[in-house]
């Protein structure tokens, strides 16, 4: 290495160390800058073994600078790249709009309120992604409240509580508090009793059809004006389980002539005969409806801002009646549209996915064909990739479409530098190889030559994918091995140098020895089988790798006969 090249390497290393340090507001790291340094300067790669030692002192010198000195030095060396980085940071910061009136609160407190009737599908990730990001923006609090007070129509799944918390952890967030509404039924009873004493609620034994007709006509229920003592007695009978399902409800007294019939004297409590699956709540029969339960809990837990679907605008209006009775201030509300996800044939619905699992059409909640968080996790998608995609949708009141290609691009940025490369041949034909070396030694990662190489023995024969098989007499470049020409059932080494590739005369293809590692790759379109190079057999389970020209996969299971991997994306 001559002095001119050495000086250029040191200069480029200083620039990348400064970019790394300023971007992350921390010390630079030799390993972190090797990828971009090599990627931007391909001619450095032949000196990959020497470069870490050469740039170490440069990085150490950068780390001795203060934050302000680092930025000033970067502005001298690479003003355009600094400006571009700052513009990207500003764009990232503006993806989510400011929360309304956030400055009026000592602390921003937000909640995700899942119904634990099953593990989360991908659409559910939007709420914790956005709330978690707002928590970081405002140094606020993130509450998870399980709205599990419907043991019948949206019956809780006992495994879903922990599964949902596990999904939130995978997305990169830790709740400040976790609440189960079914633990708080006595609290809801107490507030119902207070509301009754205020004359703000009454018990009603009308059939659903009879009350609906009265409501739609703007006429009061005949039970509306009963005295508070009678209402209180009948409510206590509800609490004691004296009524069967459908016999008695407790209604919040609103405005029977309100222009929106949905707000007229809505149900706060109803009787449910089906016991709750949680043992701690199994004895309750009088259950609060979601609008009452959620409204009370939002106040008691100090929630300052609520995000909910645009289709739930009536919820805030119903709850406002309760808040007015108690003289509470209602939280700020942000409404957003629904999110739809492309790329899946399966409907993004917990009940629909459960039906497919029960029918044996898919294997479980982490089947690669279903749009669940568990599925993406098993495929090797990082939670941050999902969060970045969801945050990028903003909080528009319009329905929005999430392209999975966005999630994949985010994930590629997160994992590309750390994933080693291997060859996988999914189908194809076998050929004997004549001439050339006994083995090939391509790098584990093209941008990090210091990681070393793989050893791929040629053996008696090799496999090529069907689409790569050359015509008779045609040349191809076996990656890591060299140029070969097809002659019948053999591939004969030609001795050509890499210029034939640079000139565009010869295609570069991947290959494996025929006695490589048997692989079953689980994909969204079904299973694909193939053979991987021998060194892939040493990759541990749960590791993410890239099969060159195929895509990123997560190693799932090392069986005796084959290795199972889950396809993430190209």
TrEMBL record:
Record's keyword annotation contains Aminoacyl-tRNA synthetase: yes
Species this chain originates from: Haloferax sulfurifontis ATCC BAA-897
Domain (Glutamyl/glutaminyl-tRNA synthetase class Ib anti-codon binding) ranges: 420-489
Record-annotated tRNA synthetases class I (E and Q) anti-codon binding domain positions: 508-556
GO cellular component, as recorded: cytosol
Function of the molecule: Catalyzes the attachment of glutamate to tRNA(Glu) in a two-step reaction: glutamate is first activated by ATP to form Glu-AMP and then transferred to the acceptor end of tRNA(Glu).
The organism's place on the tree of life at top rank: Archaea
UniProt-listed SUPFAM superfamilies: Nucleotidylyl transferase, Ribosomal protein L25-like
Top-tier EC class: ligase
Catalyzed reactions: tRNA(Glu) + L-glutamate + ATP = L-glutamyl-tRNA(Glu) + AMP + diphosphate
EC number(s) stated in the UniProt entry for this protein: 6.1.1.17
InterPro entries named in the record: Gln/Glu-tRNA_Ligase, Glu-tRNA-synth_arc/euk, Glu/Gln-tRNA-synth, Glu/Gln-tRNA-synth_Ib_cat-dom, Glu/Gln-tRNA-synth_Ib_codon-bd, Rbsml_bL25/Gln-tRNA_synth_N, Ribosomal_bL25/Gln-tRNA_synth, Rossmann-like_a/b/a_fold
Residue span(s) of domain Glutamyl/glutaminyl-tRNA synthetase class Ib catalytic: 107-409
Pfam families: tRNA-synt_1c, tRNA-synt_1c_C, tRNA-synt_1c_C2
Assigned protein family: Belongs to the class-I aminoacyl-tRNA synthetase family. Glutamate--tRNA ligase type 2 subfamily.
Subcellular location(s) per record: Cytoplasm
Residue ranges, annotated region (Disordered): 433-454
Motif 'HIGH' region, chain ranges: 114-124
ATP-binding as UniProt keyword: yes
GO molecular function: ATP binding; glutamate-tRNA ligase activity
GO biological process: amide biosynthetic process; glutamyl-tRNA aminoacylation
Gene this chain is encoded by: gltX
Alphabetic keyword roster: Aminoacyl-tRNA synthetase, ATP-binding, Cytoplasm, Ligase, Nucleotide-binding, Protein biosynthesis
Name the record gives this protein: Glutamate--tRNA ligase
């Amino acid at each position: 290495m001559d002095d001119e090249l050495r000086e250029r390497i040191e200069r480029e290393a200083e620039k990348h160390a400064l970019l790394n340090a300023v971007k992350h507001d921390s010390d630079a790291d030799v390993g972190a800058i090797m990828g971009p340094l090599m990627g931007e300067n391909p001619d450095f790669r032949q000196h990959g073994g020497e470069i870490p030692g050469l740039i170490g002192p440069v990085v150490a010198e950068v780390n001795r600078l203060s934050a302000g000195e680092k930025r000033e030095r970067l502005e001298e060396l690479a003003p355009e790249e600094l400006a571009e980085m700052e513009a990207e940071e500003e764009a990232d910061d503006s993806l989510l709009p400011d929360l309304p009136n956030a400055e009026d609160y000592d602390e921003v407190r937000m909640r995700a309120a899942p119904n634990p009737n099953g593990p989360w599908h991908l659409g559910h990730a939007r709420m914790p992604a956005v709330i978690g990001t707002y928590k970081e923006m405002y140094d606020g609090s993130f509450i998870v409240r399980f709205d599990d007070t419907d043991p019948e129509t949206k019956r809780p799944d006992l495994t879903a509580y922990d599964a949902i918390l596990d999904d939130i952890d995978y997305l990169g967030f830790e709740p400040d508090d976790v609440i189960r509404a079914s633990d708080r039924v006595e609290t809801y009873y107490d507030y119902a009793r207070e509301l009754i004493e205020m004359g703000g609620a009454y018990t009603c034994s009308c059939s659903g059809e009879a009350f609906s007709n009265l409501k739609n006509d703007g006429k009061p229920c005949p039970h509306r004006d009963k005295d508070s003592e009678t209402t209180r007695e009948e409510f206590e009978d509800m609490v004691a389980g004296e009524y069967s399902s459908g016999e008695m409800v407790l209604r919040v007294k609103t405005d029977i002539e309100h222009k929106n019939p949905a707000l007229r004297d809505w149900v706060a409590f109803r009787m449910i005969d089906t016991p709750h699956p949680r043992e701690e709540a199994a004895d309750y029969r009088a259950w609060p409806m979601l609008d009452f339960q959620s409204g009370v809990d939002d106040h008691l837990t100090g929630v300052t801002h609520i995000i909910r679907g645009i289709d739930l605008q009536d919820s805030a209006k119903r709850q406002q009646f309760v808040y007015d009775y108690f003289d509470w201030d209602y939280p700020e509300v942000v409404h957003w549209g629904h999110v739809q996800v492309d790329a899946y044939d399966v409907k993004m619905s917990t009940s629909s996915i459960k039906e497919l699992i029960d029918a044996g059409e898919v294997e479980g909640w982490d089947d690669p064909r279903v749009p669940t968080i568990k599925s993406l996790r098993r495929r090797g998608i990082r939670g941050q990739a999902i969060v970045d995609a969801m945050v990028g949708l903003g909080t528009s009141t319009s329905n929005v479409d999430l392209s999975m290609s966005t999630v994949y691009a985010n994930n590629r940025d997160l994992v590309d530098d750390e994933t080693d490369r291997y060859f996988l041949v999914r189908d194809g034909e076998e050929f004997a190889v004549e001439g050339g070396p006994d083995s090939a030694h391509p790098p584990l990662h093209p941008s990090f030559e210091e990681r070393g190489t793989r050893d791929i023995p040629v053996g008696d024969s090799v496999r090529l994918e069907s689409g790569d098989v050359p015509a008779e007499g045609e040349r191809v470049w076996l990656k890591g091995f060299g140029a070969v020409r097809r002659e019948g059932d053999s591939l004969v080494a030609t001795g050509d140098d890499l210029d034939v590739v640079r000139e565009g005369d010869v295609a570069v293809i991947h290959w494996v020895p025929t006695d490589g590692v048997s692989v079953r790759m689980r994909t969204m379109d079904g299973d694909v089988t193939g053979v991987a190079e021998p060194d892939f057999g040493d990759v541990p389970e749960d590791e993410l790798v890239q099969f060159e020209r195929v895509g990123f996969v997560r190693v799932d299971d090392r069986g005796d006969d084959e290795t199972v991997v889950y396809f993430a994306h190209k």
